[in-house]
């Protein structure tokens, strides 16, 4: 088995450093090949791109803007009455993705603790060689990436989370370029990725009563997004976020729901972001669910596993698990 490749979610890692550029530099200097940023919009994209380039770091995933956080919004894709704001946010995300060069996928593995809320609004990018891992002192727990009350999903991250395709396709189809490209995050033609955040059930509304309306809005916005993204060779990701611990009001909460929506939309550049943390909480049966939904991700996944967790102490000191993993497998470390 080839060694895992890890990415740093700098929205969570390196909280001891001020600002995303400093966190990106730290991630590259610590040996990560890639990073993901949840909401990079508080920084000029040129500053983020420059910081990443200085340390040879790929920026691989961002989220669409959350909306009005003061009003409790966490994405707008499925929120009735917010279609115009979603589309404006999508345009902004596309501008950032192009400036930052988000070329790869992530398989998000988060940990159960510290996933209840986003550690900071300024959460950043997803990408790299990674898997989500949570520190217990100097120990670790592997989990999966997600995106509610955090940056999302570039989550990631998604997340990871592995990013994949929206519906099974034959390798001879015109969209096989996506399938082939997904196996090589370092290729220049690799499609950039944006997590299209679904958003929350409106405050006070009954989930079952508004589910149909919200799905209709989501489908409409996703079809629009697929067209916009296709023009720029970008890929949109859907990330289910658990409603038992992380975000009780999030609309998209299971891989079953996400896969059904992807099938209805039927666009090859919309894919499923695999966040095992959320999948385990909502349904368990990880082996069965990975087998069932991998066709919506990537059956030959060789991308990054995103590291998304809240460090207990200094981030670099807590990365001993990663250095040990690389040393045992004789892996060269970026930045060294």
From TrEMBL:
Disordered as annotated region, ranges: 110-185
SUPFAM superfamilies: Xylose isomerase-like (SSF51658)
Classification via Pfam families: AP_endonuc_2 (PF01261)
Keyword Isomerase: yes
A molecular-function term among this protein's GO annotations: hydroxypyruvate isomerase activity
InterPro entries per UniProt: Sugar_Epim/Isomerase, Xyl_isomerase-like_sf, Xyl_isomerase-like_TIM-brl
Annotated ranges, domain Xylose isomerase-like TIM barrel: 193-285
GO annotation, biological process: glyoxylate metabolic process
Ranges of compositional bias, category Basic and acidic residues: 110-124, 131-141, 171-182
Keywords: Isomerase
PANTHER family: HYDROXYPYRUVATE ISOMERASE-RELATED, ISOMERASE
Protein name: Hydroxypyruvate isomerase isoform X2
Species of provenance: Physeter macrocephalus (Sperm whale)
GN (gene name): HYI
């Amino acid at each position: 088995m080839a060694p895992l490749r890890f990415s740093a979610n700098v929205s969570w890692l390196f909280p001891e450093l001020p600002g995303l550029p400093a966190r990106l530099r730290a991630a590259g200097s610590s040996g990560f090949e890639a990073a993901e940023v949840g909401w990079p919009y508080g920084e000029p994209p040129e500053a983020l791109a420059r910081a990443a380039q200085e340390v040879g770091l790929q920026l691989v995933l961002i989220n669409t803007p959350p909306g009005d956080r003061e009003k409790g919004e966490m994405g707008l894709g499925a929120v009735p009455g917010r279609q115009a704001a979603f589309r404006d946010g999508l345009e902004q995300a596309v501008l950032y993705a192009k400036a930052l060069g988000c070329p790869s996928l992530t398989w998000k593995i988060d940990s159960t603790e510290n996933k209840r809320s986003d550690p900071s609004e300024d959460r950043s990018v997803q990408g790299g060689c990674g898997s989500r891992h949570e520190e217990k002192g100097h120990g670790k727990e592997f989990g999966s990436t997600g995106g509610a009350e955090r940056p999302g999903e570039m989550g990631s991250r998604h997340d990871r989370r592995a990013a994949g395709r929206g519906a099974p396709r034959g390798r001879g189809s015109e969209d096989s370029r996506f399938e082939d490209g997904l196996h090589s995050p370092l290729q220049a033609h690799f499609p950039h990725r944006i997590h299209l955040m679904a958003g929350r059930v409106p405050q006070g509304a009954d989930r079952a009563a508004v589910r149909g309306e919200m799905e209709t809005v989501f489908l409409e916005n996703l079809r629009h997004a697929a067209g916009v993204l296709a023009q720029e060779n970008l890929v949109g990701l859907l990330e289910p976020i658990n409603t038992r611990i992380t975000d009780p009001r999030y609309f998209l909460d299971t891989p079953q729901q996400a896969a059904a929506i992807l099938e209805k939309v039927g666009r090859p550049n919309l894919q499923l972001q695999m966040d095992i943390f959320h999948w385990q909480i909502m349904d368990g049966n990880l082996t069965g669910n990975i087998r069932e939904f991998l066709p919506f991700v990537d059956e030959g996944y060789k991308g990054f596993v995103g590291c998304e967790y809240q460090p207990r102490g200094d981030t670099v000191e807590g990365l001993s698990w990663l250095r040990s993993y690389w040393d045992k497998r004789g892996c060269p470390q970026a930045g060294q």
